[in-house]
Amino acid sequence: MSGEVAAIVLAAGESTRMGRPKPLLDWGGKPLLQHQIDELSGAGCDPLVVVLGNQAPTVRAAITCDAPCRIVVNAAYRNGRASSLRAGAAVLPDERDAVVVTSVDGPCSADTVQRLITAWREQPGSRDIVVPSFEGKNGHPALFGGALLGELREVQEATEGLRAVRRAHADTTRFLNVDDPFVTLNLNTPEAYEAARAADSDR
After folding, report:
1. C-alpha–C-alpha distance, residues 31 and 13, integer Å
2. Tell me: the pLDDT tens digits for 131-176?
3. Which of 23, 66, 132, 162 has a beta carbon 3.0–4.6 Å from 11's, enabling a disulfide?
4. CA-to-CA distance for 9 and 129, rounded, in angstroms?
């Protein structure tokens, strides 16, 4: 079972380099954020917390987020990604075994998320981190053992947020080889987005 694994989707940023809201980018005929919600839900993540900020009402109106999906609006989203992670982690129940963290601009698949969960359950360390890797390049989303939830609730932009948590637990981080090139994808610019759409259509 993977129902004891929660997930956080960070979708609050201003999408400055993209020039339009990343959550609303078309991905397979649906908003990119809806894709993320559907894939994480399909992997059994419960609850699934979606953190909105920039243009939150417009983004909210474009997606469906039914229980166990929950929307959180980070009014301080301009303070950086760490503020959104704190907002998402703050509403998660303490008893979740693990938490999957991803950003809206890294399209994930239910299959890859399930593989992360399975790998963690085969060797369930409460402070372990599982990171997907494709052809030697590490990617996302990452899965964090439940004992790290307190640290996720305290991340700060000044100390590089999630990266600081990863660094602090480098000795309990496992890398999982997956056959999914999209784990290394970040849709930061229009050019990256168009290239990714073309690659996705070829799969």
Report:
1. 16
2. 999 999 999 999 999 999 999 999 999 888 999 999 999 999 999 9
3. 23
4. 17
- As for how many domains the chain has, the answer is 1
Q: How confident is the model at residue 2 (pLDDT cuts 50, 70, 90)?
A: very low
Look up the domain containing 192 and give its range. 5-201
- Mean pLDDT taken over the chain: 94
Q: Which residues pair with 144 in a beta bridge?
A: 99, 129
Residue 79's domain is classified under what CATH number?
3.90.550.10
pLDDT at 30: 97
Q: Are 140 and 175 in contact (CB under 8 A)?
A: no
Residues 106-134 have a mean pLDDT of 94
What is the secondary structure of 36-90 as a DSSP string?
HHHHHHHTT-SSEEEEEBTBHHHHHHH----TTEEEEE-TTGGG-HHHHHHHHHH
The enclosing H or E element of 157 equals none
Model confidence, pTM: 0.95
- Separation of alpha carbons 64 and 164, rounded Å: 32
Decide: helix, strand or coil at residue 183. helix
Give me the DSSP letters along 86-109.
HHHHHTS-TT-SEEEEEETTS---
